[in-house]
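#structure-requests
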Amino acid sequence: MILEEKRRHSSELVPFSYYKCLIPDYFVCVPLHWHGEFEINYVLEGRAEFLCGEDRFVSAEGDIIIIPPNMLHAIYTHDSYEQRYDTIVFSADMLGASENNRCAAECVRPLISGTLGVNVHITKEHHYYSEIKTTVENIFSCAKGNSPQLDMLLKSELLRLFWLLENSGDIYPESEKRLDFSENLRPAIEYINENFTENITVQQLADIVHLSKSYFMGRFRQAAGVGALEYVVQLRIKKACILLKDSRMTAAEIAFECGFRNLSNFNRQFRKAVDCTPIEYRKINRCERCSEVLGKSTNG
C-alpha cells in the first residue's frame, strides 16, 4: 500500500518527526495519502488548498491544521501562492494511547479509530485561538529542540492541545455516514498508488470498488479534489520531480519511467503542474543544491 505511507515518522526512541515545508518549492503538491500517526501543520505564511477527509479549505497565515490517524489528506497549491509551514507527525503514544486508563480509553483511542472526530482547521477566529496558538508554538519549539528533556514538555503540550480542543467542542462523535465517506474508495486509491506508471482506466478503478463509472468519478473527485486520472498524473509528476533532482536519467527516460507514453505529453503535463519544463526544473534544483553545498563549505 503506497497510499498508506511506508515511511514511519516515529520510532520508540523518538516518537515524532519535524518537517520544515514550502509548497510548491520543496514539492509540487502533497498527493492524497494517509498514515497511522497524528499530524499538525502550522501555516507561517502564504496559502494552499487542504483536503482532510470531507473538509476542503484554503489555508491562511496562522492557521493550524490537525489531522488524526488514518485520515485521507492532501495539500495542493492555491492560485499563484506559496505556503511556508511547519509540520510535526507524531505517534499516538505521545498522547498515552497504549496506557490502560480512562483518558486513553475514552479520549485518545477513539480519535485513532475514528469514532471521535476533530475540527481539523483552526483559524484566528477560533475563540480559543490565542491559547491554541501558544501551545502549538511550544510544540514546534520542543520538536525543533529535539532533546530527551524537551520530549517531556512536548508530551505535556500535545496533551494540553487536545484538552483545549476537547474543552472547546472541537472533538466530537463521528457519524457512521462520515466514517464511510471515503472508506470504499481506498482500494482504488491504493491500486493507483501501486500502479500509476501503468495504463489505468476509470472503469478499472470503478470495478475495483464495485461502483458504477459515473458514481465512482463523482465520489473520487469529492474525496480527492481532483479526478482519478488527474490524480494519476500528479503521482507521475511527483516521481518525475524526484528523478530530475536525484538521477542522471534523461527527460525522455524519466517520462517513460513515470508512465508517460510520449515525451510531448510529459512536457505538457509537467509544465502545467510545475510551471516550467523538466529541463528548467532540473537546472533550478541543481543550482539550489550547489548553493547549499557552497554555503556549507564556506560556513564550515
